[in-house]
Structures are given as structure tokens and as C-alpha cells.
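Sequence only, no structure available. Ideas?
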Amino acid sequence: MTFPVRRVGVQLRPEAFNAFNFVNLFNPRSNIGAANPGRIDTAGDGRIMQVGLRMTF
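Reply:
I predicted one. C-alpha cells follow.
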């Protein structure tokens, strides 16, 4: 959305990453000697939302 304010343009930018909150799993453990080999116990970040403001003059 762009809003003209006098001679300055203001742009508001909403952004969403992983908006539907799907699970992004990492690779399974590959060390056979460790506890629980082959287990997937880590995942990527969940839903991230941010708002940006850009001013042009």
C-alpha cells in the first residue's frame, strides 16, 4: 500500500514467511553411535511475520 504524504511517498509492506505454519524438518541424526540414531528431532522456524515501512522523497 502506498500513501502520498506531501512530497514524501510512504509504503507499508506486510510480509509473512511460512504463513501456513508447515513443519520444515531437518535431516535425521547420522551418527550411529549416538543415542537415537536416525531420529529427526529438529525443525526450522515456525511462522514469521513482519511489517516494513519505506519512505521515498
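The chain has one domain: 2-56.
Hope that gets you unstuck.
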